[in-house]
Amino acid sequence: MRDVLAELARRVAAGETVGVGTVVATFSSAPRPPGAAMLVGAAGEVVGSVSGGCVEGAVYELAQEVVAGGQPVLRRYGVSDDDAFAVGLTCGGIIDVYVEAVSAESFPQLPDVLAAVRAREPVAVATVVGHPDWVGRRLVVWPDRVAGDVPSARARDAIADDARGLLAAGRSATLHYGPDGQRRGEGLAVFVNSFEPPPRLLVFGAIDFAAAMARLGAFLGYRVTVCDARPVFATNSRFPEADEVVVDWPHRYLAREADEGRVDGRTVVAVLTHDPKFDVPLLEVALRLKLGYVGAMGSRRTHDDRVRRLREAGLADDELAGLASPIGLDLGARTPEETAVSIAAEIIALRWGGGGGRLTRTDGAIHRPPGG
Questions:
Q1: Which residues belong to any copy of the XdhC- CoxI domain (predicted)?
Q2: Domain assignment present for 359
Q3: CA 290/CA 267 separation, integer angstroms
């Protein structure tokens, strides 16, 4: 939903009623995750995707029907072996898509949600997708407040608590309760769409490889910072794709960001300086934090020397085990752009539990849960 949120808000603010299809659950090898969304405008134009092309036509028609009739619909799309080219997912997956008509009247909190996302503030939208009477009702949940129209205080409290848990974990998912929000039972299904702030990519070393990494990181949805102690190299003109360019000693900058709570378990650190006076103090800080990824560029000789220095600085084996060095996957990369792809590939593989091998030589599911 994040990628179509601004367009949805723009259309709704202009008085348009928009058909919105949102993936609320996936099973097996589904091509898009929960939260993926597709808009169908009043003139029939389409923005976004729920399946990468497999069921867009069916969702398009359903969205037009829902806008005309006003009743939201939860529809499951799947495939069976004997009907692989009917409307469904030829990849073999199953997705549940919730289709609704969104207007200023049905979603008055939409501008507040967009404002929070733009301000990089965490916010979750919890929509009732299954219930005898409440389908279409929703709550907007921030860490410190709640807005919305779920009629039961019991259900409101349960949904808000669980939505905050999903928001803290950066996950979107469908939750199930008893019909009045009881923790046990069935009858109430709520899809929580989490809009956590984008993860950070901290690139240290203002070199040509950093410029390529900044471009790719921005493309992958990271908030990118490039940091270098040398002001002649760390300039906005050299790194236009970065969200910020910082002139500071790398270890001092990272320590300050950690002290201020601006890094977390999703933060990626790419150390591209391969200069011991910069990267050893920086890695002393980075490897003692709970980050998503810490990688350092350099030859195997550089790596061996770096590890020796880090050991001398007092880092233990379990801390050194968190270092990806030499950085990246073995793709045979030569150029800065190819090297950036190899680094990004390693980050993605570690995030989702991939092995980094060729899919043509593997068996089993292509898409897997984190750590799977």
A1: 13-78, 117-178
A2: no
A3: 9
Strands lying side by side in the sheet with 138-141:
146-148, 138-141, 123-130, 188-195, 173-177
Q: Are residues 242 and 301 in the same domain?
A: yes
Structural domain boundaries enclosing 127: 120-197
Whether 171 and 271 map to the same domain: the answer is: no
Same domain? 325 vs 205: yes
Question: Does residue 2 lie in a domain region?
Answer: yes
Residue 88: predicted pLDDT:
46
Q: Is the pTM of this model over 0.85?
A: no
Work out the burial of residue 92: count CB atoms within 10 Å of its CB; fewer than 13 is exposed, 13-18 middle, 19 or more buried: middle
User: For the chain, first and last CA: distance in Å?
Assistant: 24
- pLDDT tens readout for residues 207-260: 999 999 999 999 998 999 999 999 999 999 999 999 999 999 999 999 999 999
DSSP string, 138-190: EEEE-SS-EEE--S-HHHHHHHHHHHHHHHHHT--EEEEE-TTS-SSSSSEEE
List alpha helices for the chain, DSSP H.
Answer: 2-13, 56-69, 110-118, 153-169, 208-219, 250-259, 276-286, 300-312, 317-320, 336-352
Do both 139 and 156 map to the same domain? yes
pLDDT for the residue numbered 27: 82
**Pairing between β-strand 173-177 and β-strand 188-195 as defined by DSSP bridges:** antiparallel
What pLDDT was estimated at residue 32? 81
- The amino acid sitting at 205 is G
How much is the pLDDT for 80? 42
Residues 5 and 100 in one domain: yes
Regions in the chain scoring below 70 on pLDDT? 29, 79-92, 365-372
Contacts of 252 (CB under 8 A, 6+ apart): none
Residue 192 has φ and ψ, to the nearest 5°, of: -105, 115
Do 91 and 78 belong together in one domain?
yes
